[in-house]
Amino acid sequence: GWDQSDKFVKIYVTIAKAGALTLEQVSTTFTASSLHLRIANHEGKNYEMIIKDLLQDIVPQESYHRIKSGI
What we know:
By secondary structure, the chain is mainly beta. The chain is 0% helix and 39% strand. The protein has strands at residues 2-4, 9-11, 26-31, 34-42, 45-51. The radius of gyration is 13 Å and the shape is globular.
């Protein structure tokens, strides 16, 4: 999913049993024009999502990820 306002761009990634993820399993790397999401050893599998060449630059130092469950 995707949500955008004047200040934020949010990307939602749905994964089964997200509530079982630990903070150590999920990592993100941001550059001014890209993001790289990694989920390690979730249900015995590794996941990766890379978005290169974002439409507009972002501020990597202000970018972060959040794990939500029960949605």
